[in-house]
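User: Quick one: structure for sequence A, then sequence B.

Assistant: Sequence A:
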Amino acid sequence: MRYEILGPLRVVDGPSITSLSARKVEVLLAALLVRADEVVSSEDLVKEIWGTRAPRQAIATLHVYVSQLRKFLRRPGRTESPIVTARGGYVLRLGADELDFHIFQDLVRQGSAARRAGRTQEACEAYEEGLGLWRGPVLEDLRDAAIVNGFVCWAEQSRLECVESFVDAGLELGRHREFVSFLYARIEELPLYEAFYRQLMLALYRSGCRADALSVYQSARTVLGEELGLEPSAALKRLHHAVLVDAPEIEAA
């Protein structure tokens, strides 16, 4: 069985894909999954589900939700529930089950190791496979409290770092033309993420579009100035100068 949280929450068991319709039970499952194999206190779960408006019988209601969740996760041939009561709270034990975010992390580690070893094609494939696990905004409708919100921030930053590594590996492989439209879309999505401007400038320059590369720098300078009151970083300025003078170090390998 595989739990999927890189998008709307769902459970995949062979050909079967199921999701919860009761939102509070879904929040409970999300909180237990993002802290899989760790005990989450009943107090923290109450805050996650109800915030500051917990009912008088919140703990008793939490027990009911846990019971409903155990029923939802019950599978033929399994004698034990993955949700275990422990030390004033609950823990979801993954055991042989999978969590898509853990798979993503493993692929990123594989990609980074391959890149350090000079196996750039292998690295690029690992990063791309990891990014393919993302199905949309992480737990989009469940971001009301600390546990899920904290995880979402961490997960999104991990995704950005993976995208950046994926593009860098692709550019090393000479896939600059292929990444031009991809990077324009990423900048549209995140106009303040400076690394994408750097990568797009390189991709355009190596595709023979020097004027467009210089235009991207001006766009970055305008956006950063208007939104943050900042100049581009020293690295982006150096790349701009390298494009202006056709520096040999930015030519494709």
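Sequence B:
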Amino acid sequence: MSLTVRAGNGRLLIPRATYDQHLAAAATAALLVREGRVLLVPLTGPMAGGLLLKQRNLAGDRVLLAPDLLVRCGHGDGDPARDYRVHWSPDEGALWIEGLIVTD
């Protein structure tokens, strides 16, 4: 099974399957850019900071607000949402969002 996230309208939607497999202990996350690639880093603990992984629906999908970063990746407000495959990168302790690339 391929895990995904969906980017659009300033939000990153994280389906429950992706959240459960890689982010379940995290209430917040950070989005980092490394060599143009976007990484989603789970953060844990009350002092971790980061962006809130809000529960979006009863199915357990999560949403993370990141309008500035998504615009830098070519996702304007009116653009259609797009799905991206994700892969766990053990060296970085983060999810690599394949194909979501900072263009500036």
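Strands lie at 4-8, 11-14, 28-34, 37-43, 51-52, 54-55, 62-65, 82-89, 94-101. The first helix runs from residue 16 to 22.

User: Thanks, that's what I needed.
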